[in-house]
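Order emerges. For instance:

***
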Amino acid sequence: MLTTARRGWIAASLAACGALLAVAAWTGLPGGGAGERAPARAVDTAELDLLHTAGELLVQDCMRARGFSYWPVPRVPHPDYRDFQYGVDDVDWARGHGFGRGIERQLDEQAASGPAGQYVRGLSDGQRDAMGAALLGPEPTGLEVKSPLGGTLSHSDRGCVTESWRTLYGDVRAWYRSSETANQLTAVRTGRVNQDPAFGKALAAWSACVGGRGFPAGHPVRQREEQLARTGPEAEAQDVPMAVAQAECARSTGFADTAQDLHERLSDRIRAENRAAFDAMRRMQVAALPTARDVVARHSGS
């Protein structure tokens, strides 16, 4: 019989059917001092897409060999998807998408009615358990890393996801340690930006601006979350005007520029503080590119 913890692990593995951990695109890297090993370069967006696509195809092959179907998912879930870490600051995007409610709804509908969702729903409970174990391993054990946010993160050293890492990056323990550290540091950076006095000053100006437009709010991210939690035609009718006010105030008050400047400066600082993890991750990514190209070429028939 499966334990509650194991069932939770397997349920999480099937929730989105997108297997690979998304590695944040940290650009640039501080140069080393005299006599230090030259830092690894950051892969660009096209290379990140290549590595992700190759990984998904490897997972698909592995799952097929274990008797399951798997549909690769793109690294960016929707062509208009945007991740606004400090609130919406693109006025044109806000006019077209509000806070992105329509994009989220479309993704939810695709997940429910698409082939992957239909396939998983057609499995028995036992088959779903077996599929989850094949995808991510039977238990989240074998790979560990201390989180910069506190505590320890773990992942199975078995399963098709780990096998895809092994094919691309070789040393799965080193890959998990470095890539998951980079992922966790994204939240560290966001926290430091929000705690900076310059951010607080700019935020106060932004808050006064949106309040003057009839949308009182203390923080743009919370404003978006609270608005998307509201449902019904009346709530949805406010999405675009509220999002446009958020974006226009972010620009007119200088809030967006302040947030971006802090984001870049703190990125440099965090990379310097965690250079070993970033360097290891990037060297493995660059080294994996030839294998990734071969995998994609093989599946495209070229």
In short: The chain has one domain: 4-14+43-296.
